[in-house]
Amino acid sequence: MTRYALDTSVMLRWFAQDAEADTARALHLRQAHLQEDIELVVLDQSLYELLHVLKESNRFDQKRVEEALASLHFMHITVESFSGAIVARAIQVAYEHAISLFAAGPVALGAHLRCQTVTCDASIYRKVSSLPWTALLARLNL
User: What pLDDT digit, counting tens, does each position of 23-32 carry?
Assistant: First the structure.
């Protein structure tokens, strides 16, 4: 089964479904996971980051944020907890590619799990695109 490590930008498309080009592709990934065609993995900190962004967006009241959390629970996404090895790799990636530690976390997760890390954030992707396990959702072969 194909496994993908996701960053928060992909999960955000599931809930804040603006008319962005990546929304349909992100929803396709979610559906493929629900059908057990692929496995999606995220860092535990990415869940906090996602829920924080939804809360701060002014479009999500407490009930809608709680519904988003319930939806994530229902999807049975694999959540990786804090790991010294992943954090050490994230620090390395952050410094080598001039990105935040938060952005480097999913990249490090992909390296750790030997799977592709998928992002919708083109500016982050440009900085890490030399790493063969990183993919921009818009270019991912689905």
Answer: 999 999 999 9
* CATH ID of 2-139, from 3.40.1350.10, 3.40.50.2300, 3.40.50.1010, 3.40.50.2000: 3.40.50.1010
Tell me the pTM: 0.93
Segment 34-41 mean pLDDT: 97
Query: Measured between alpha carbons, how far is residue 67 from residues 38, 54, 71, 85 in Å?
Result: 24, 11, 6, 32
How far is Cα 63 from Cα 79, in angstroms, rounded to an integer? 23
- Token readout for 46 is 């990415």
Contact in structure between 7 and 46 (CB atoms under 8 Å): yes
Burial class (CB in 10 A: 0-12, 13-18, 19+), 82: exposed
| One-letter identity of residue 32 | A
pLDDT value for 21: 77
